[in-house]
Amino acid sequence: MNRTEDTIFALSSGTLPAGVAVVRLSGPKAFDAATALAGDLPIARKAGLRAIRSRNGSVIDQALLVCFPGPASFTGEDCVELHLHGSRAVVSAVYEELSALPSLRFAEAGEFSRRAFENGKLDLVEVEGLADLISAETEMQRRLAVEQSFGGQSVLYRSWADRLTRARAMIEAELDFADEDDVPGSVSDRVWLDMGDLYAEIEQHLGSAKAGEIVRDGYKVVIAGPPNAGKSSLLNALAKRDVAIVTEIAGTTRDILHVDIDLEGYLVRFFDTAGLRETGDLVEQEGVRRARIAIEQADMILELEEIDSVSKHDAKLPSTNLLRLGTKLDKHGVSPNYDLCISSRTGEGLEQLRGRILEELRRVWTGSLVPNRQRQVQYLKEASQSVAEALNGRELDIRAESLRAAASSLGRITGHVDVEQLLDVIFSQFCIGK
Ligand SMILES: Nc1nc2c(ncn2[C@@H]2O[C@H](COP(=O)(O)OP(=O)(O)OP(=O)(O)O)[C@@H](O)[C@H]2O)c(=O)[nH]1
Ligand SMILES: [K+]
Ligand SMILES: [Mg+2]
């Protein structure tokens, strides 16, 4: 039997026990299955209270039922939601009844969204956005996911693909009618002007990919510096709990620890590292090696040093996005030798430190319409490269072919590669003096 014709069910709400558990059904037998459990069904898209009964007639629970006839449903198929009381026992008794019905089975991971995609309810970008929306933890992650899951990003990609297809139609018309004298001569010029604009737009959008990555995966701030500078103490102060071991012994930290902090809606990931120094200790050497790798991958480095300490270290740190912090302000006076002086003990300077990081983040953030997955970035790069090839090409037919390639790269992002259809429509309306 074709598995896509099965009717699937799963718990769509969170971990049990809970006040309410929503079990969702989708597929051709969804309404039959719900009728078997509830006796009869409420009218479409209206909630109705029903006793849910087992095969032997005993009541399992009282539940709200909502029916969504396809195609006006999440998956595009007939769907039913059962809003049950959220205990493990209720849900497993309902599962048992559903499993006993012919051609009903438990859904596989992502199968509801998969069906929604296959039935044209969601495109790939929207599916990815939905996954991000469900796992969003910060305000910025939520905003990004909303733009993606409700079509904002897809509209942009589709409008680009349409422009490419139109441009190609113009070029091909020019090729076809090249011998005739009724071809408007400036058509081609206008097309290439627009393609130049499009190239700039895609490049600008690609330029914001870093912001997307930062919002999704977090802004990486690495706390570095010589042993005993107070790195682990700063991590603990920022986290407001004892994450890292702090002692007065130089070389305490070896492994890299990290703490995620929500800074005004941005996810910031702070890394505590081993103190940078030459050492004979094998374990500490490994710690220093790891610290250097973390420093290389950082979006921002906090270079800590006890204020005006005599033992200046000479570890070379990248100078871009480096903030020099003088530590243990409670023991020493403020010194002009640092960007900022702080005390992890009293908390002095920490608010300013958060402010500095936030300033950076706000500079990076360019709005929520950004590519934020490697897959999207990859295809956007391909598209941009093809447009550049078209702009710089010589033979008109090869240039048109590059435009086609660009449109299909964009189509792969959303999963819509049917630009050929649009091309047909455009051509059928196209008439040059005929
Ligand atoms: N007075 C004062 N002491 C501090 C402050 N921050 C850290 N210390 C002390 O400095 C010592 C070293 O602190 P750590 O946080 O372990 O320093 P570290 O840079 O992580 O050291 P390593 O992991 O060994 O490289 C400890 O004794 C801390 O109590 C501060 O703001 N004020
Ligand atoms: K220490
Ligand atoms: Mg430490």
UniProtKB/TrEMBL annotation:
Binding-site list for GTP: 228-233, 247-253, 272-275
Pfam family, one: MnmE_helical
Subunit architecture: Homodimer. Heterotetramer of two MnmE and two MnmG subunits.
Name of the protein in question: tRNA modification GTPase MnmE
Cofactor binding: number and manner: Binds 1 potassium ion per subunit.
Enzyme Commission (EC) number: 3.6.-.-
UniProt-annotated binding residues for (6S)-5-formyl-5,6,7,8-tetrahydrofolate: 24, 81, 121, 434
Residues reported in the UniProt entry to bind K(+): 228, 247, 249, 252
Enzyme class: hydrolase
GTP-binding listed as a keyword: yes
